[in-house]
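Reopening this one. Same input as before:
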Amino acid sequence: MAKMWAGRTAGNTDQVADDFNSSIRFDSRMYKQDITGSMAHAAMLAKQGIITEDEAATLIDGLAGILADIDAGKLEIDMTAEDIHMFVEQELTARLGDVGKKLHTARSRNDQVALDVRMYLREETDGIMAQLRELLEVIIDRAAAFEGTIMPGYTHLQRAQPITFGHWLMAYAMMILRDLDRFADTRKRTNVSPIGCCALAGTTYNTDRRFEAQRLGFSEICRNSLDGVSDRDFCLEFMSACSILMMHLSRMSEEIILYSSWEFAFIELSDAYTTGSSIMPQKKNSDMAELIRGKTGRVYGDLMALLTTLKGLPLAYNKDMQEDKESLFDAVDTVKMCLAVLTPMLATMSVKAENMKKAASGGFINATDLADYLVGKGMPFRTAYKISGQLVALCIKEGTVLEKLPLETYRTYSELFDKSLYDAIDLEACVNRRISEGGTSRESVRAQIAYVKEKLKP
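Same output, byte for byte:
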């Protein structure tokens, strides 16, 4: 295929070099953005008198026809083209003749590709944010259903204090809410138009960059043409937000994997989101959660790849920047897929409340409450802490739990103990006395749910 840039050279590249240079196999996914951007560019050229209104109408109709034909499957994107921009322009010229050759006036592929990527990423960001809202709705619904379901809370993966399953779920709701905010924030800096920066120095034509930007839904234009064509900060910000999100999804997946094991048996995943073993018939593997955990490293790699690509590039555009797309597209696809699996997996997950309560009962996770009981009677906390620890050691030695120790035993450690201690170390009471804002009491979990619901309002 003849090269649109032939002139200074004959345009006859080696076939291997041609394949190496080509990006059509991956940037073809931006055909809608490329064509839509070109329509706006044609309208701007006519508005400024650079081309006639009739020429602009012809170009826009031709571009609309190409878009409709691709969408309908009537036109196949030519994978021998150098990139999606060249394919569209060549197809337009083939259909319209010399009028088609006027479209590229007052722009370069440098600002054109930057425009396409920003438009593409803006749409994908909106899609991911919608998925995050859906995930949050599922989490808060399930948190409300299990606001009083007692389970052990852990530090160092050791049973620590009693919490509720609703409280556990709301911890992840807060993480996802921050992710939603991060994507909304990075979208602001994505929604800046580079078109009109041209190759690097702007253009001698009297263009109207703001008209074109507004027509495409951008809130601002890049203020420096060198920066406009070489900036990929918005891609890095997006992939950073993706990486943090994936870290959160991975942490949740890790706990889902643990809690669905026989050793914990706190939850059971639906058969729709598990697999079996090829040799062990008893197995029910949490493969989907494991894959989310595994794919996190992949998204981290996408971010690091682009950071490394950009770190030493001189201004303005360099062909290295073609490497932005595969990493970006992979991060987009991976995040969307993980969210599409995790959300229904959580919605269909069974919760084994009895097993949670049993585990909470056997781990001395009310020891802090025992110490607090003594503090409430006037004892210094460190003294109360020591006595509580001694009583736990005694229970372990005798194979019992704090709730079953007789009052007489308690009183050998302190005369401050009376029958009210048993109410103080009851797990339900332990949970619901944690009334501090953000704590695990039913009232607090309900407040957290209300907070997230308020944040999700349009």
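So the earlier flakiness isn't reproducible anymore. For the record, The beta strands are 150-155, 158-164, 192-193, 220-221, 267-268, 350-351.
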